[in-house]
Design brief:
The chain crosses the membrane at residues 28-59, 80-96, 102-123, 135-155, 161-179, 191-211, 217-237. It comes from Nonomuraea harbinensis. Keywords: Membrane, Transmembrane, Transmembrane helix. The chain has 255 residues and is mostly helical. It has helices at residues 2-21, 25-32, 44-65, 77-98, 101-126, 131-153, 161-181, 188-208, 215-240. It has two domains: 1-66, no CATH class; 77-243.
């Protein structure tokens, strides 16, 4: 609550500065974590888009940092490591959003690698023989990790590989959301955030079409998509720490 309130206060001050002086610098940095693009004016449209991005960050801070409900004192090793991997993946998603140039490329590799670990650990926690789910996740995130490493060293990437990996990631996400929907360890809100993160890019692309020349629109709406992913990953981990709903034990029969 303290961190969210502090960010909200800073965001309010930055909006007032933008409206009064026309300086987008503070608001741009608070929402896009970068220096303002040269030539971008403090129009009502730009301020509104940045405010939407800022409100997304504020909601994400609240959802992520408030932590899980009190859970059992002991958790099995696979569940514990899956929670750690999910929190790391949420952190690297944030790092990808704020990191510049070369650091961004390294952050992207770390993010896909963290998700690859999530793929492997999730199947252990979920249980059952789901080779198709494991295959889609390993192909998608493992492939993107390799692509990122090749980009860092300057080696060419075969054409069409990124599309294949993207389809595999999409398939894995759909399968995970379906599995979560049938498992009482994950709440309805967590599944809803996952679905929103899955479909948000489509709606955000459509929302950005009226602003073909506004890079700020694409960047600000991209923040919304990233925050939804972070919230889903964090709640994914939060729910695993909550006590499970166990059916009541039957009353013992009388002698």
């Amino acid at each position: 609550m303290l961190v969210t309130a502090s960010y909200g206060a800073a965001l309010t001050v930055a909006v007032v500065i933008a409206l009064i002086s026309g300086d987008l610098g503070p608001l741009w940095w608070l929402t896009l974590f970068a220096t303002v693009t040269e030539g971008v004016a403090a129009t009502g449209q730009n301020v509104l888009l940045l405010v939407v991005a800022g409100l997304s960050w504020a909601w994400g801070i609240w959802q992520i940092l408030r932590g899980p409900l009190a859970g059992p004192p002991q958790q099995d090793r696979n569940t514990l490591w899956l929670r750690v991997a999910l929190y790391v993946a949420a952190a690297t998603t944030w790092l990808v959003q704020i990191a510049p140039s070369l650091v961004w490329a390294v952050a992207l590799v770390l993010d896909t690698a963290a998700m690859w670990v999530v793929v492997l650990l999730f199947l252990r926690v979920l249980g059952g023989d789901r080779q198709y789910m494991r295959g889609a996740g390993v192909l998608g995130y493992g492939g993107f990790t390799v692509i990122g490493v090749l980009d860092l060293v300057g080696w060419p990437v075969p054409g069409g590989v990124e599309l294949i990996c993207g389809v595999a990631v999409l398939a894995w996400t759909v399968l995970v959301l379906r599995a979560q929907g049938y498992d009482d360890r994950w709440g309805t809100a967590t599944v809803a955030y996952g679905i929103a993160a899955l479909v948000a890019p489509i709606f955000l692309i459509l929302a950005a079409l009226p602003f073909p020349d506004e890079g700020s629109a694409v960047e600000a709406l991209g923040v919304v998509s990233s925050v939804l992913i972070m919230i889903w990953l964090a709640r994914f981990a939060h729910d695993l720490a909550a006590p499970r709903h166990q059916p009541a034990a039957p009353a013992p029969l009388e002698a």
